[in-house]
Specification:
252 residues; alpha+beta; 2 domains; three-stranded antiparallel beta sheet; 12 strands; 19% helix; 17% strand; elongated; binds heme C
Length: 252
Amino acid sequence: MAQSAQAATQQSQIPKPSTEAPIQQAAQPAVQQPTPPAAPAAPGTKEHPFLEANDLKPENCVKCHAEVQKGKSVHTALSSGCDTCHQAASANGKTTMTDTATGGDLCAMCHEMEKGPVLHAPYKAGECLACHDPHSSDYPKETLARANTLCFTCHAVNQPGVTVQGDMKTVSVLGGQTISLEEYQKAIKIALDRNGATGHPVMGHPMSGKVPGKKDMTLSCLSCHAPHSSALPNLMPPGVKTDVELCGQCHD
Ligand code: HEC
Ligand code: HEC
Ligand code: HEC
Ligand code: HEC
Ligand code: HEC
Ligand code: HEC
Ligand code: HEC
């Protein structure tokens, strides 16, 4: 399963940390020192602009990559250091970055995986980055967009930020996460009314906005679905045993 998070050609409108000027200005002096030979390339190893071996300290990383800490929600894992997830090595004038683990395995180093019995396909596949930024974002729980935008990427057609690479049979979704075209096509596209804003789960039903009589409640996909796993089909949210019970949360 393709799960490389290579950025590249995304046309996402999601705010993406910018990596502009500061990085170029921070170029290192080109003094090379003898360094031990590099370990053989592991999966998830990428070349990095050259850094001296003694500049590889985690506290230096944010001098060039300040954007990873910006946003209304910042992943607590950053406080354990960049090297928890990115292992930097410099040798023979080359620097490489190796992810400690790939896909969902990286996240599973610290997060216990939900067991189901019903598991959401991208969660099960370890495609955490289809919905989360590993560092920070402006949305709750480091998600890449507000809930409905996030869910619409795979469950509605013609969404911004979604690009089909037909020849490679892959689809790049928010944040540059790549999923297989097969998975994208499997994701049921929900029926919507002509206005695109209502129509699910029943005709005329809104999917956003306030819920009359329920202060502090805002309607979204997450009002009726869990994002990762559920005890019931259709990813019904925790505490709900039947569709009727779900409806009863807002309707008498
Ligand atoms: C002197 C500036 C500088 C420092 C210091 C620096 N980086 Fe980078 N880093 C860059 C540039 C430039 C790129 C390539 C452009 C980009 O993708 O942002 C990059 C790319 C990366 C990438 C993406 C790799 C890829 O090929 O997709 C990772 C991950 C990364 N850096 C992690 C780190 C970590 C961890 C540290 C600390 C050990 C670090 N960087 C220190 C400048 C720097
Ligand atoms: C919880 C794990 C984790 C931690 C901690 C972490 N990263 Fe990352 N980072 C990732 C993942 C996953 C990716 C996307 C896959 C890849 O390209 O390696 C990524 C990608 C990057 C990239 C490529 C550009 C981008 O934003 O996608 C840069 C640069 C980067 N990380 C820098 C850092 C720096 C600097 C730190 C420390 C302040 C850090 N990361 C801490 C998991 C982490
Ligand atoms: C080094 C350990 C570590 C790794 C690796 C890690 N996390 Fe976390 N993560 C944490 C800690 C610690 C918290 C905060 C504890 C909590 O609130 O439960 C957290 C919280 C979160 C949250 C909730 C954020 C919030 O604001 O409450 C999300 C979402 C998350 N992690 C996603 C991920 C994803 C996706 C990955 C893989 C790319 C990942 N984590 C990898 C340690 C880690
Ligand atoms: C389909 C989108 C999606 C995928 C895929 C996804 N998540 Fe989430 N995740 C969410 C959303 C949305 C929330 C916030 C739920 C909320 O606010 O109630 C969340 C919340 C979290 C939290 C915080 C949990 C809490 O109870 O506060 C963690 C940790 C997390 N995700 C980790 C992961 C990991 C690890 C993966 C991959 C194995 C993953 N997520 C895959 C959408 C997703
Ligand atoms: C008011 C509650 C509610 C909201 C809000 C809601 N859903 Fe649903 N959804 C349901 C119910 C009930 C079902 C099961 C009955 C059905 O298939 O329509 C369902 C089924 C689904 C299915 C499976 C469809 C199928 O045909 O098997 C998907 C996919 C889905 N919802 C996605 C979404 C997305 C994406 C959003 C947000 C844009 C969303 N839902 C918002 C209640 C809701
Ligand atoms: C990266 C693509 C992707 C994203 C983003 C995504 N989904 Fe899904 N979703 C899928 C796929 C693939 C399936 C499984 C289709 C199948 O195999 O039957 C699925 C299935 C579902 C189902 C039916 C589950 C079942 O097995 O009964 C619901 C409900 C659903 N998604 C809701 C959501 C919600 C809510 C969000 C946003 C939090 C969301 N999806 C975001 C890809 C996605
Ligand atoms: C999280 C809250 C919430 C849940 C759960 C919910 N609804 Fe609604 N529903 C609303 C809101 C808000 C409206 C629009 C205002 C109103 O009519 O009260 C609405 C409106 C409706 C309407 C009228 C639609 C129209 O054409 O005006 C129907 C029918 C309906 N809901 C059925 C259901 C059913 C069936 C379920 C369970 C599958 C359900 N609702 C679950 C919040 C909810």
